[in-house]
């Protein structure tokens, strides 16, 4: 049976660890990162159409491009090129992942469109080719396909699954304005101008990986690290207050998520997360506060 429409649910991510090496000649930085997929999802619906169309609704929809530059549209165009077909599909994105929030929302939409169009056209593209297309769209897109908890190397696109036992409970403080990923990397380079960046920055975080296997958030919490955090705080100094407010509210630890400005707080359990979220909402340090758990699977077709 040829399906009329395919809906794909795709998770946001947080970087539990983000070690950033020196600036490379191609403009990227070598990374050693631990991704975790969280239960905050965008939905991407793909259906046949007379031409390539993209519409977005939900959180921050107005800030998302509604043309061929949208990452979801670029994903469909690339699959169509490889399949030698015209990209005649309508893409409808429902956003819950904050735009320009350091939670890889655009990458999630690209991964959702990839999985959606491959299913719609019944292309049977192999996982490795799908990952290769994903990496061509953006460094974070392969992880949005993959989900779970994973070690990311290279520019973040080379993945290795990590065994994480149990569930981790997070509170997300979503900022009033976004941060541009290239601007944050650029700010980090500026802050590092007078010191040499060594291989230590990209050493494998063995202690954190062992802690994830233990499943104990109290062991994981002190090992969270984000090299982009000083750069994000330099561009949005008010985030210091947000981080302090989360700790004061009872979180085990808090970090800026990726390039920010979303702040992610690891909590001892679900009850603690609900309490921290309530207190953070009252503190007025964020536009919105959400709870989420991880790890969750990557981009998946939703049976409607
Ligand atoms: C920082 C991270 C952490 O996971 O994500 P966000 O927090 O923004 O979601 C990623 O490295 C973002 O990945 P993604 O948003 O896919 O970046 P890309 O589109 O590949 O690259 C955008 C720009 O970011 C910078 N960039 C990205 C990845 C990398 N390893 N080194 C870089 O320097 C480059 O300036 C590049 O031109
Ligand atoms: N489908 C999409 N959803 C969100 N942003 C998109 C999308 N396609 C392109 N963009 C652009 O990518 C930029 C980064 O957005 P996003 O992926 O949400 O943030 P981050 O890189 O911080 O995780 C946005 O400012 C937006 O202009």
Automatic annotation (TrEMBL):
Q: Which GO terms describe its molecular function?
A: 4-(cytidine 5'-diphospho)-2-C-methyl-D-erythritol kinase activity; ATP binding
Every copy of the GHMP kinase N-terminal domain together lies at 70-148
Q: Where is the GHMP kinase C-terminal domain?
A: 208-283
Pathway(s) where this gene product acts: Isoprenoid biosynthesis; isopentenyl diphosphate biosynthesis via DXP pathway; isopentenyl diphosphate from 1-deoxy-D-xylulose 5-phosphate: step 3/6
Instruction: List the catalysed reactions.
Output: 4-CDP-2-C-methyl-D-erythritol + ATP = 4-CDP-2-C-methyl-D-erythritol 2-phosphate + ADP + H(+)
Which major enzyme category is it?
A: transferase
Give me the residues that bind ATP, please: 98-108
Where, by residue number, is the active site? 13, 140
Q: What InterPro entries does the record point to?
A: GHMP_kinase_C_dom, GHMP_kinase_C_sf, GHMP_kinase_N_dom, IspE, Ribosomal_Su5_D2-typ_SF, Ribsml_uS5_D2-typ_fold_subgr
Q: Which Pfam families match?
A: GHMP_kinases_C, GHMP_kinases_N
Presence of keyword Iron-sulfur: no
Q: What is its EC number?
A: 2.7.1.148
Q: Which GO terms describe its biological process?
A: isopentenyl diphosphate biosynthetic process, methylerythritol 4-phosphate pathway; terpenoid biosynthetic process
Which keywords describe this protein according to UniProt? ATP-binding, Isoprene biosynthesis, Kinase, Nucleotide-binding, Transferase
HAMAP family according to UniProt: IspE
Task performed by this protein: Catalyzes the phosphorylation of the position 2 hydroxy group of 4-diphosphocytidyl-2C-methyl-D-erythritol.
Q: What protein family does this chain belong to?
A: Belongs to the GHMP kinase family. IspE subfamily.
Quote the protein name from its UniProt record.
4-diphosphocytidyl-2-C-methyl-D-erythritol kinase
Question: What is the originating organism of this protein?
Answer: Gordonia insulae
What gene is this protein translated from? ispE
């Amino acid at each position: 049976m040829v399906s009329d429409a395919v809906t794909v649910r795709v998770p946001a991510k947080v970087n539990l660890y983000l070690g950033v090496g020196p600036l490379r000649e191609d403009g990227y930085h070598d990374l050693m990162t631990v991704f975790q997929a969280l239960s905050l999802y965008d939905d991407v619906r793909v259906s046949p159409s007379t031409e390539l169309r993209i519409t977005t609704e939900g959180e921050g929809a107005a800030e998302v491009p509604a043309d061929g530059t949208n990452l979801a549209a670029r994903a469909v165009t690339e699959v169509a090129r490889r399949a030698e077909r015209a990209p005649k599909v309508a893409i409808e994105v429902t956003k819950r992942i904050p735009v320009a929030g350091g939670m890889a929302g655009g990458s999630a939409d690209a991964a959702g469109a990839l999985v959606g169009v491959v299913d719609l056209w019944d292309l049977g593209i192999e996982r490795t080719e799908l990952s290769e297309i994903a990496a061509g769209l953006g460094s974070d897109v392969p992880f949005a396909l993959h989900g779970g908890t994973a070690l990311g190397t290279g520019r973040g696109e080379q993945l290795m699954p990590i065994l994480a036992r149990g569930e981790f409970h997070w509170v997300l403080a979503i900022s009033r304005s976004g941060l541009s990923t290239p601007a944050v990397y650029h700010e980090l380079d500026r802050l590092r101008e007078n010191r040499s960046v060594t291989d230590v920055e990209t050493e494998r975080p063995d202690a954190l990986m062992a802690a994830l296997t233990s499943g104990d958030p109290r062991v994981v919490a002190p090992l969270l690290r984000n090299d982009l955090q000083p750069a994000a705080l330099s561009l949005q100094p008010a985030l210091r207050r947000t981080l302090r407010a989360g700790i004061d509210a009872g979180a085990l630890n808090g970090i800026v998520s990726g390039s920010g400005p979303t702040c992610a707080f690891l909590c001892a359990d679900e009850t603690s997360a609900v309490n921290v979220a309530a207190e953070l909402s009252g503190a007025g340090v964020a536009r919105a506060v959400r709870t989420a758990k991880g790890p969750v699977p990557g981009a998946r077709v939703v049976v409607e």
